[in-house]
Amino acid sequence: MIVDVISSLSPPTSSYDILITRDLMMVEPADGWEIYNEQLVCVGTPTHVDGKSLSIVRSMPILNITSRPDILPTWLRAMNMKSQDIRSGARYDHNYLAPPEVITGKCLWPRQKSP
Predict the structure, then answer these.
(1) Residue pLDDT, tens place only, 56-77
(2) Residue 82 burial class via C-beta count within 10 angstroms: exposed 0-12, middle 13-18, buried 19 and up
(3) How far apart are CA 16 and CA 2, in angstroms?
């Protein structure tokens, strides 16, 4: 069996036998099975988040990852917040560029919770 793995933010343009996606809506409920339940959390240095309330996200810049444009809006909805409620920080292409900004205490970062 030949398996092609394609990573894209665009809907598929050709037919497929199996599609694993986090963003496309399925027409029929039976067309989809949850294989992973992603949990999003906002992280920052202990100096900035330990013992602090949710108000910290209103005062610290929050960075965004362009390869996962869904994370910040999803996290904001879960926190019952809007983009106007936060200070927008740096924008990075990929998650691996974000940790140095967070570790140095320059911002907070909504990200996928580690298992």
Answers:
(1) 888 899 998 888 888 899 999 9
(2) exposed
(3) 12
